[in-house]
């Protein structure tokens, strides 16, 4: 049995923010908010040329699609290049080069006036809006955001395919202990190596200009640029205190332990984490088969 990506995801055309709060924010359910930033300068004017004029002379770090170091967060760019040249590249040809988590607003603070945070009853982390740029074919591999914050991901140019999985599937997705990564490839799944993938259900959607995808904190996500383009993420605190504490522990404790163990044990530590992930997945499979119920997650 293959991964089921047909778990439905709602699309709100006429956005009622109070309805969003009650039916999606509080229960932590993904949804696409179509035109959430409509009426702002960002919605109307942001495109490749706009950013070339604003920040084209900046030297930026770009990342490639590499499958090495599957349990590590990518922090050091693989290459550096002029931003205007990068924009010309992703506008004209497929490339796996992408810009990840760029707080361009620190370099160009005037951009903060191009949009407004929506009047949603959530604590937006207004010091940490991030931009993401990618060429056709570039990807962000499967991961969770380490701080467990909610993400409002708005697409401004191009298209992106996004696959989401509930955190309830973490064991079946072979999450490595002490971090927020997995070694599985959900696009080309290896069911013999990762049999737990046969039991997971995911959300799959495409976002394009003006679409804002609400990704609840702790949700797994895989992102692929099906067209060269860019978007922005607005982040907010998870409404559940337990998730905020988990995010804090990830940042302050688990990440540090993982770094020290990797430094001290090298590849041996990675193999230990793989073994732990495998054992957890086998236990989850046994539980499902014992109960005779493949529907592990109902929401």
Note the main attributes of this structure.
Jelly Rolls; five-stranded mixed β-sheet; 7 helices; 14 strands; alpha+beta; globular
Strand numbers in spatial order across the main sheet: 2-3-12-9-14-7-6
Largest sheet entry: 7 strands, mixed
Summed up, the helix count is 7
Structural class determined from secondary elements: alpha+beta
Question: What's the helix-strand series?
Answer: EEHEHHEEHEHEEEEEEEEHH
Shape type: globular
**How big is the Rg?**
19 Å
What is the fold named in CATH at topology level? Jelly Rolls
How much beta, percentage-wise?
Answer: 15-25%
In CATH terms, what is the architecture? Sandwich
- The whole-number mean of residue pLDDT values reads 92
CATH C-level category: Mainly Beta
- Helix percent reads 25-40%
Question: CATH homologous superfamily - what is it?
Answer: Cupin
* Record field, number of beta strands: 14
Q: What is the number of domains?
A: 1
Describe this structure in words.
By secondary structure, the protein is an alpha+beta fold. The chain has one domain: Jelly Rolls (Sandwich), CATH 2.60.120.650. 29% of the residues lie in helices and 25% in strands. It contains seven helices and 14 strands. The protein has helices at residues 17-25, 41-45, 48-55, 83-92, 104-107, 241-265, 267-291, and strands at 4-7, 10-12, 31-34, 59-62, 79-82, 98-102, 130-134, 139-143, 150-157, 160-165, 201-207, 211-215, 220-225, 229-236. The strands form three sheets. The protein has a seven-stranded mixed β-sheet, with no helix packed on it. A five-stranded mixed β-sheet has the order 1-11-10-13-8, with no helix packed on it. α1 links the parallel β2 (10-12) and β3. It starts with a strand and ends in an 8-residue tail after the last helix. The model has no long low-confidence stretch (mean pLDDT 92).
């Amino acid at each position: 049995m293959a991964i089921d990506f047909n778990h439905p995801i709602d699309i709100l055309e006429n956005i009622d923010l109070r309805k969003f709060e009650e039916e999606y924010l509080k229960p932590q359910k993904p949804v696409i908010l179509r035109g959430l930033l409509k009426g702002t300068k960002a919605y109307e004017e942001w495109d490749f040329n706009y950013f070339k004029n604003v920040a084209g002379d900046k030297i930026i770090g770009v990342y490639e699609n590499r499958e090495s170091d599957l349990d590590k967060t990518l922090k050091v760019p693989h290459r550096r290049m002029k931003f205007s040249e990068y924009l010309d590249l992703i506008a004209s040809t497929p490339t796996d080069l992408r810009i990840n988590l760029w707080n361009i607003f620190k370099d160009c603070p005037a951009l903060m006036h191009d949009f407004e945070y929506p009047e949603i009853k959530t604590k937006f982390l207004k010091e940490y809006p991030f931009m993401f740029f990618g060429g056709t074919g570039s990807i962000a591999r499967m991961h969770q955001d380490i701080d467990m914050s909610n993400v409002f991901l708005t697409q401004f140019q191009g298209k992106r395919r996004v696959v989401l999985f509930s955190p309830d599937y973490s064991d079946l997705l072979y999450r490595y202990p002490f971090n927020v990564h997995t070694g599985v490839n959900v696009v080309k799944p290896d069911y013999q190596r990762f049999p737990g993938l046969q039991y997971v259900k995911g959300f799959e959607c495409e976002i394009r200009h003006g679409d804002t995808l609400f990704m609840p904190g702790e949700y797994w996500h895989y992102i692929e640029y099906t067209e060269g383009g860019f978007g922005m993420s607005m982040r907010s605190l998870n409404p559940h205190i337990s998730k905020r504490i988990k995010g804090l522990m990830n940042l302050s404790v688990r990440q540090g332990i993982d770094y020290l163990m990797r430094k001290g044990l090298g590849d041996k530590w990675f193999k230990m984490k793989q073994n732990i992930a495998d054992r957890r997945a086998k236990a989850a499979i046994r539980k499902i088969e014992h109960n005779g119920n493949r529907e592990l997650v109902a929401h």
